């Protein structure tokens, strides 16, 4: 196998585990069969990518809201001399999954979630963090409308520039203690072995049929968005990642948001509130291998949507990017420590 062929295979495997992870007993054998290679070769590629830090985590991606958590994007204005200490304080919160420095006076951007049994609640938790970090100002930007959330980096450079967004209809599911046992295990980072879900089978003493039946229930109800690998953008070659914000007419948000979300390079697309000191309400996360590539996507979007103003906020530093560990005791511990 030549180097070029090896690289192409690696890129195909990395795209497959982001886009459509097989929920089967031997998912990597399924991928191997699809790509006309061997399970051993697929596992070698994945384990090497994991060691190199290209793959961050492979697990279920749950819908925070449907699990009863309240969440928001938040931007703090922190004096430069206070950033390092502020980051330590923010990153210690178990519900902060993403934390970045961006090129704006609101320079620290993070997502925060609080548990269903939170005593403090979302707003009070943010106020406590603002005080502890000596934030000069802050804005809270919860999701008003979600148009897209799906991080799929095109490692092959073969994907279409735009994609059709599929509107899903979800069934209702009342979560029971039975379901929480599965959630706690499905959110764990799997190992790249022939049977990566076997630890769940052994832990719960169930069959594969029962496991994937519950997983399908989660997917049908929207409790689980998908099962996928998340890549480290920079190590996967996507170093120009921008949060592009747009000022749009809220009455036209649905059609505008859907158009922006249709671009494959857009992983997240939301409508968020406006404030006197923050006029941008449509948020798009755009991923590119180069600044030029990202700027081309921004230009392409700007040609098909109506907007008043736009701004590209590039991340200068990444302080935290993890998946929340749902139903962890760390949420209670944080509140006990910080409630006064």
Protein described:
- The protein has 340 residues and is an alpha+beta fold.
- Helix content is 36%, strand content 24%.
- The chain has eleven helices and eleven strands.
- A nine-stranded antiparallel β-sheet has the order 5-2-4-3-11-8-10-9-6. The chain has a two-stranded antiparallel sheet with strand order 1-7.
- Helix 2 crosses helix 3.
- The model has no long low-confidence stretch (mean pLDDT 93).
Sum up the structure in keywords:
alpha+beta; 9-stranded antiparallel beta sheet; 36% helix; 340 residues; 11 strands; two-stranded antiparallel sheet
Helix content: 25-40%
Unreliable parts: none
Rounded to the nearest angstrom, the distance between the terminal CA atoms is: 62 Å
**What would you report as the Rg, rounded to the nearest angstrom?**
21 Å
Mean pLDDT: 93
Strand residue percentage: 15-25%
SSE order in H/E notation?
HHHEEHEEHEEHHHEEHEEHEH
Using DSSP, what is the number of strands? 11
Placed side by side, the strands forming the largest sheet appear as 5-2-4-3-11-8-10-9-6
Pairing-aware structural class of the strands and helices? alpha+beta
How are the SSEs ordered, and which strands pair?
Layout: H1 3-19, H2 27-34, H3 39-51, E1 55-62, E2 70-77, H4 83-91, E3 96-102, E4 108-114, H5 121-132, E5 137-141, E6 145-149, H6 177-186, H7 198-204, H8 208-221, E7 224-231, E8 240-247, H9 253-261, E9 266-271, E10 282-288, H10 291-304, E11 309-321, H11 330-338
Antiparallel strand pairs: 1-7, 2-4, 2-5, 3-4, 3-11, 6-9, 8-10, 8-11, 9-10
């Amino acid at each position: 196998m030549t180097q070029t062929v090896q690289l192409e295979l690696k890129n195909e495997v990395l795209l497959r585990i982001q886009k459509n992870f097989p929920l089967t007993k031997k998912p990597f054998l399924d991928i191997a069969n699809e790509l006309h290679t061997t399970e051993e070769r697929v596992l070698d590629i994945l384990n090497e990518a994991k060691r190199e830090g290209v793959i961050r985590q492979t697990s279920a991606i749950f819908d925070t809201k449907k699990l009863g958590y309240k969440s928001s994007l938040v931007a703090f204005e922190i004096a430069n001399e206070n950033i390092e200490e502020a980051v330590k304080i923010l990153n210690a919160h178990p519900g902060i999954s993403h934390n970045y420095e961006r090129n704006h006076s609101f320079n620290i951007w993070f997502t925060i979630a609080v548990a269903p049994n939170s005593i403090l609640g979302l707003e009070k938790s943010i106020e406590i963090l603002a005080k502890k970090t000596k934030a000069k100002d802050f804005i809270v930007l919860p999701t008003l409308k979600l148009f897209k959330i799906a991080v799929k980096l095109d490692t092959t450079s073969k994907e279409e520039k735009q994609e059709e967004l599929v509107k899903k209809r979800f069934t209702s599911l009342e979560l029971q203690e039975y379901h929480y046992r599965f959630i706690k295990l499905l959110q764990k980072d799997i190992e790249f072995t022939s049977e990566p879900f076997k630890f769940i089978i052994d832990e719960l003493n169930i069959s594969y049929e029962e496991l994937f039946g519950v997983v399908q229930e989660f997917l049908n109800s929207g409790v689980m968005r998908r099962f996928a690998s998340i890549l480290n953008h920079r190590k996967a070659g996507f170093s120009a990642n921008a949060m592009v914000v747009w000022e749009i007419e809220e009455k036209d948000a649905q059609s505008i948001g859907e158009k922006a979300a249709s671009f494959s390079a857009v992983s997240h697309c939301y409508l968020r509130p406006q404030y006197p000191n923050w006029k941008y309400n449509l948020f798009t996360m755009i991923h590119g291998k180069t600044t030029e590539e990202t700027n081309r996507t921004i230009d392409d979007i700007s040609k098909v949507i109506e907007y008043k103003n736009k701004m590209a906020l590039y991340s200068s530093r990444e302080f935290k990017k993890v998946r929340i560990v749902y139903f962890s005791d760390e949420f209670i511990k944080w509140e006990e420590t910080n409630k006064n």
